[in-house]
Write a structure and sequence with these properties.
With about 500 residues, the chain is of the alpha+beta class. The protein folds into two domains: about 5-195, 4-Layer Sandwich (Glutamine Phosphoribosylpyrophosphate, subunit 1, domain 1), CATH 3.60.20.10; about 210-445 and about 475-490, Rossmann fold (3-Layer(aba) Sandwich), CATH 3.40.50. The chain has helices at about 25-35, 90-105, 110-120, 210-235, 255-270, 300-315, 330-335, 355-360, 365, 380-410, 425-435, 465-470, 475-480, 485-490; strands spanning about 5-10, 40-45, 50-55, 70, 75-80, 125-130, 135-140, 150-155, 155-160, 170-175, 180-185, 190-195, 250, 275-285, 320-330, 350, 415-420, 440-450, 455-460. The protein has a six-stranded antiparallel sheet with strand order 2-3-1-9-8-10, covered by helices on one side. It has a six-stranded antiparallel sheet with strand order 4-5-6-7-11-12, with helices on one face. A hairpin with a 2-residue loop joins β8 (about 150-155) and β9. It is globular and about 80 Å long. Keywords: Amino-acid biosynthesis, Asparagine biosynthesis, Coiled coil, Glutamine amidotransferase. InterPro entries: Asn_synthase, Asn_synthetase_domain, GATase_2_dom, Ntn_hydrolases_N, Rossmann-like_a/b/a_fold. GO terms for molecular function: asparagine synthase (glutamine-hydrolyzing) activity. It comes from Metschnikowia pulcherrima.
């Protein structure tokens, strides 16, 4: 696995030979932090253009492979992990180049060959592929967009980077499931969709309401999450392993999504009879506005309870969970550039991101059903569930912009890699196409007492099927915990006096 930045970056037409048109000093320093195992800077000149390339490597797939990777007229820079069966036990960067060389022998057009290879890749990745013969640069992300990749396009220059360029306002975040092509004769960037019609929705009336069908779906959910976690666990082979420390960490609030992942990851190690220490990383902020210390934030309290429940479930196994509590004071929050010693040595961190988008974990998903009456016709209710399904697909389509690029840039700056089992390509497709939307957002009518008497209200249970799985795994506390945004769980929201009316969408 390799980190890339300014890959084929700064491709420009210099005013004189060997003149550097773009200062890469700042990006290079940022990229060095992303890949602590290896770094390489290259300058090339061909077809009247000047190329500057810089890559740094966090090596998690052996054998160790330097980057950029050269093969004839092709140069590859790759950031990510592939889970294709053909390369699960090998180096994925070499696998991509081998696949490209094979495809080029069968395709007359290079664009077709590149698109065919990238469309077949399964994983979390971003790439830059330079064709020095035709002066084309191909770049993009996986189908969801789980890695950071941005580009800047000027009349005489193209810059591609995994970190934000100096003029971030001019940078464009690459969209998942797109192949971008920079023509270095014209300096124009175009794009094409790789996989049309990714998801095929069934009408809500298609699904069975029988209890045994629900039980079968629960079993399949468990099985598919096991698979999504397992292939992300089996592809961790650091260049300098430390058997005495944690290989894996989980971003851990103690809530439903991350606790289910922690339990499944632990059980996978048990089933393979492997000894493993898993770090559960939880963050809390001292909030001077409310006077609440980090140790009393809701996420901190819940994480301790869920950690204890995990320890009970695995007490007789070879898997141990270590709760790593990270307290951030207000002064440190203001001086966020300061680096402090970090207690977890885990190179790979698992994230529960994607569960809310797939299973209906937000209040906006509940709002779709507002206005229904207790005697609403089945057809009307089904229409709302179909609207929910469309809304969830939209959430997955834009998650690269809302979360993924930012999260990758933030976490990779510490030499860590994020992996997302809920955003596994086949898992997403199964949840969208096969899981009854009524098992995602469940509701029933209940009688509520008010000052004016009793009234009938809708009572929702978000991520219904995932909560059922938590109960099956013995995670009773997590199965009952309500969804809470991280800024409220960690108490990082509105930390200053006068911020009560501030919204997350406000321009700063």
């Amino acid at each position: 696995m390799t980190k890339l930045a300014d890959s084929s970056t700064s491709i420009d037409k210099p005013k004189q030979t060997n003149q550097l048109e773009v200062d890469l000093s700042d990006p290079i320093l940022a990229v060095l932090a992303r890949g602590p195992d290896y770094a390489r800077y290259s300058e090339l000149g061909f077809s009247g253009n000047h190329y500057q390339l810089f890559s740094s490597v966090l090596s998690l797939r052996q054998p160790f492979t330097q980057q950029p990777l050269y093969n004839g007229e092709w140069i590859l820079q790759f950031n990510g992990e592939l889970y294709n069966d053909e390369c699960i036990d090998g180096n994925d960067t070499v696998f991509i180049m081998d696949q490209l060389m094979s495809e080029l022998k069968q395709c007359e057009e290079k664009l077709q060959a590149v698109a065919s290879v990238i469309a077949r890749l399964d994983g979390e990745f971003a790439f830059v592929l330079t064709d020095t013969q035709n002066s084309n640069v191909y770049f993009g992300k996986d189908s969801v967009g789980k890695r950071s990749l941005l580009y800047e396009n000027a009349p005489d220059r193209v810059c591609i980077s995994s970190i934000c360029p100096r003029n971030a306002a001019n940078a464009v975040e690459c969209v998942g499931n797109q192949l971008y092509v920079a023509d270095m004769h014209t300096y124009k960037v175009t794009s094409m969709q790789l996989k049309p019609n990714q998801y095929h929705l069934q009408p809500a009336s298609h699904y069975s309401e029988e209890e045994d069908c629900h039980d079968k779906c629960l079993g399949l959910l468990h099985e598919r999450l096991i698979q999504a976690c397992d292939k992300r666990q089996r592809t961790i082979h650091p260049l300098h392993p430390n058997s005495k420390d944690a290989r894996i960490g989980v971003l851990f609030s103690g809530g439903l999504d991350c606790t289910v992942l922690a339990a499944i990851i632990g059980k996978n190690f048990v089933d393979r009879n492997e000894t493993c220490l898993i770090d559960l990383l939880t963050v809390g902020f001292d909030n001077p506005r409310t006077g609440l210390p980090a140790s009393e934030s809701p996420d901190r309290v819940l994480s301790e309870q869920s950690w204890f429940e995990l320890c009970q479930n695995f007490q007789d196994s070879n898997v141990k969970f270590r709760l790593v509590q990270i307290d951030v004071s207000y002064a440190e929050w203001l001086a966020h550039r300061e680096r402090r010693p970090y207690t977890s040595q885990a190179k790979v961190l698992f994230s529960g991101l994607g569960a809310d988008e797939l299973f209906g974990g937000y209040s906006r998903h509940e709002n779709i059903f507002h206005g229904l009456k207790e005697d609403s016709a089945t057809e009307v209710i089904n229409q709302r569930y179909e609207e929910l399904s469309q809304s969830l697909i939209h959430d997955i389509d834009v998650i690269y912009e809302r979360n993924l690029g930012r999260d990758d840039r933030a976490m990779s700056s510490w030499g860590k890699e994020l992996r997302y089992p809920y955003l596994d390509q086949s898992f997403i497709k199964w949840v969208i196409e096969e899981v009854n939307p009524k098992l995602k957002m469940s509701f029933e009518w209940k009688t509520q007492k008010t000052k004016k008497g009793e009234k009938r209200v809708m009572s929702f249970e978000r991520k219904f099927l995932l909560r059922k799985l938590a109960k099956r795994l013995g995670l009773n506390l997590a199965s009952k915990e309500a969804k809470r945004a991280i800024q409220f769980g960690a108490k990082s929201a509105k930390m200053e006096v006068g911020q009560l009316k501030t919204r997350g969408t406000d321009t700063l």
